[in-house]
Amino acid sequence: MASLSGKTLFITGASRGIGLAIALRAARDGANIAIAAKSSVANPKLPGTIHSAAAEIEAAGGRALALKCDIREEDEVRAAVAATVDAFGGIDILVNNASAIWLRGALDTPMKRFDLMQQVNSRGSFLCAQACLPHLLQAPNPHILTLAPPPSLEPKWWAAHTGYTLAKMGMSFVTLGLAGEFGPQGVAVNALWPKTVIATDAINMIPGVDARNCRTPQIVADAAHAILIRDARGFAGNFLIDEDVLREAGTSDFDRYAVEPGRRLLPDLFLDP
Questions:
Q1: Is residue 2 part of a domain?
Q2: Residues whose CB falls within 8 Å of the CB of residue 141, separated by 6 or more in sequence, listed in order
Q3: What mean pLDDT do residues 147-161 have?
Q4: Which residues, 6 or more positions from 196, have their beta carbon under 8 angstroms from its beta carbon?
Q5: Would the N or C end of the chain have less CB density within 10 A of its end CB?
Q6: Which domain, by its residues, includes 118?
Q7: Spatial CA neighbour of 225 closest among 9, 25, 59, 11
Q8: Annotated catalytic residue 257
Q9: Does residue 272 lie within any of the structural domains?
Q10: Of residues 88, 114, 164, 193, which has the active-site annotation?
Q11: CATH number at residue 231
Q12: Quick one: DSSP state of residue 257?
């Protein structure tokens, strides 16, 4: 089976949740993980820091570099990328996982919150790609994987939370653009989105969501791994769904990913049931 052994991954927002799960799956192969996140000090409301993540990654068999980095800040991103290259000799994979969420209508969305989402989601993904690409273009099998949904102009996905949808679809359109520009140069630029709601701290932002009706971050991590071990050449511009990726890879038992097997699973945003 193909492996990420010796590969260097730069993962944004990897101190907890889906980002950490992706990091730990790669660590089991013996990968090098740069954890780029703001969480350097423990927060009782949001468990996990770049330092606790680094300890988990190393315990799982990987090498870790904890990088305090706000992806809204260009200088911090470029410094984090440089530190990663200094530590591990290059970058093979960028995972744009960091994202801000606010699921409210236009009149209930403060401009500070609106700006945060645009800066973290679409701008942050573009900036991290721009900073990593000079190194990715020198890597033997380079990937950019962004946690973003298939592009949609369906009004139902926009009406309830225009600010968030704009920011999230911005990540999707960044993926489209970079795939068109760098896919022909051998970089696999793709997006991954979960079929169901994933039990992370973000679900606290979604009214009425019970974690027992969700899957764990592990399904996204396993799907990401299946994508990232693929040959990058000719593999760009795809908007992939975690369950579909794993079915194609031969997985048939999805109950193991459920928080509580047997319960009805909630479809994620931007996907029809």
A1: no
A2: 92, 188, 231, 232
A3: 97
A4: 214, 215, 243, 265, 266, 267, 268
A5: N
A6: 8-257
A7: 25
A8: no
A9: no
A10: 164
A11: 3.40.50.720
A12: G
